[in-house]
Amino acid sequence: MRKRHFILTCPSDWSNDGRGQFFEEFVADLLRPMRFAVVERLRVTGMEIDLLAKHLDRPETILVECKAQRDPLPADVISKLLGNVVIRGAAAGWLFSASDLSKDGKGQWEEIQKNQNLASKFTWFPPDKIIDILVDQGSVVDPDPSLLNLAMSRSCGLLGDAPG
């Protein structure tokens, strides 16, 4: 089975903050068709929330963390998000990431999946799930392998398959 990934590119002169904001806006655009009203970059006492998503049809508030970095995400990203969910009384925390989790991050995620209460409070959207959402929303077409090779050779692809 191929492991899918995506690449978001932005100008090289953008700051880390500018790149982060770009990914946050990208994720906000994924949430709106799911019937969420989205507030970006909300600062509250002791924390900054990348996105606050309020469902339009249910009394449900989701804290959304957006990580566009290439390096695997450490476990503390998950711990911090779950802590913020509890402190703010949110329904759940969702982590959207352009990279995988570190070894410890995967271990923590697997432990969360074994606990029904925690699993209902945390959802991780790795690159594969983000691609699924984009395809389901009709935003992109999952590329044919022959198209992928052309796109990768020209370095202009948004999504792709990699041997996995």
Structural descriptors:
single chain; 164 residues; alpha/beta; Trna Endonuclease, Chain: A, domain 1; five-stranded mixed β-sheet; two-stranded antiparallel sheet; disordered C terminus
Radius of gyration: 16 Å
- CATH architecture group name: 3-Layer(aba) Sandwich
Largest sheet: 5 strands, mixed
In helices, the fraction of residues equals 40-55%
As residue ranges, the low-confidence spans are 155-164
CATH topology value = Trna Endonuclease, Chain: A, domain 1
Domain count: 1
CATH class: Alpha Beta
Described by the principal axes of the CA atoms, the overall outline is globular
Order of helices and strands: EHEEEHEHHEHHE
Structural class computed from helices and strand pairing: alpha/beta
| Proportion in β-strands | 25-35%
How far apart are the first and last residues' alpha carbons, in Å? 7 Å
Summed over residues and divided by their number, the pLDDT gives a mean of 84
Number of helical stretches of at least 4 residues:
6
Tally of strands = 7
What is the spatial order of strands in the main beta sheet? 2-3-4-5-6
